[in-house]
Amino acid sequence: MISNPSRHCTVELQALPSRIGQVRRIVSAQLRYWHLDPLIDRAALGVTELLTNVHLHARPDKTCTVEMELLLDRLTVSVRDHDPRLPVVDDVVAGVKNADALSTCGRGLAMVAALSESWGARPDGESGKVVWFTLPAAGAVRDRAARPPRRVAADQGALLFPEVVAVDGRGPAHAPARSAVVG
Fold first, then answer.
1. Chain-wide mean pLDDT for the chain?
2. What is the spatial distance between Cα 54 and Cα 82, in angstroms, rounded to a whole number?
3. How far apart are CA 75 and CA 9, in angstroms?
4. Do residues 43 and 31 lie in contact, with contact meaning Cβ atoms separated by under 8 Å?
5. Beta bridge partner(s), residue 170
6. How far is Cα 109 from Cα 95, in angstroms, rounded to an integer?
7. Which residue from 141, 117, 111 is spatially nearest to 37, judged by alpha carbons?
8. CA-CA distances (angstroms) from residue 137 to 69, 79, 147?
9. 3-class DSSP assignment, residue 121
10. Mind listing the pLDDT tens digit for each residue in 120-179?
11. Is 169 left (phi over 0), alpha (psi -120 to 50) or beta?
12. Can you list the pairs that 118-127 forms with residues at least 24 positions away whose Cβ atoms lie under 8 Å?
């Protein structure tokens, strides 16, 4: 379910590996819609790490909600699950310093901390938690007024079918016209 696409997006899911890829695509599409293309990679990576943590650690189930909220110049991405156990902040910092160089886990929240402006976790009622991160959106929002005006076809007349000039100095080779219509 996507609600109020202008400033808020909510996706409910089971945090399974196949669903995580779908949520990455939803996050990317929503950020494109909001004209926040420069934030796509960091937001998609951050939400992937948070959803992977739900998949690996959350109990009793893997049901969660991903929310994105754009307020003024800040994008907040949060993942809400039904496991009340909060991540231990000391483990995030120590995990990077003490991790085995070949280890494939234990770095997710450290990456979220590194890619975000801020992050945290808080209890959500008696049986859940929310883990969130923020990204600065001020420099990422493209000002529509600053863009050059779009040219209409009448203004582009000469550009629609430019003449092809061969590199060897001879004129362009002519090819028969083809139709995209079968038959």
1. 77
2. 9
3. 11
4. yes
5. none
6. 9
7. 141
8. 11, 19, 18
9. strand
10. 999 998 889 999 999 999 876 554 444 444 444 444 444 444 444 445 555 555 544 554
11. left
12. 121/86, 121/87, 122/86, 123/84, 123/86, 124/80, 126/84, 127/82, 127/84
Question: What residue type is assigned to position 6 of the chain?
Answer: S
- What's the CA gap between 65 and 67, in Å, rounded? 6
Answer whether 139's CB lies under 8 Å from 42's CB: no
Joined tokens for residue 18: 């196949």
DSSP state, residue 84? -
Q: Please tell me the distance from the alpha carbon of residue 122 to that of residue 69, in angstroms, as a whole number.
A: 17
End-to-end CA distance of the chain: 43
User: Which residues is 78 bridged to in the sheet?
Assistant: 67, 132
The Cβ-side half-sphere exposure at 101, using a 13 Å CA radius, reads 0
> What sign for the dihedral angle of Cα 111, 117, 123, 124?
negative
pTM higher than the cut 0.70: no
- pLDDT, residue 54, reads 93
3 state DSSP class of 159: helix
Tokens of 33: 């819609």
Give how far the C-alpha of residue 43 lies from the chain's centroid of Cα atoms, to the nearest Å: 4
For residues 42 and 159, give the distance between their C-alpha atoms in angstroms, rounded to a whole number: 38
Residues pairing with 80 in the sheet: 65, 130
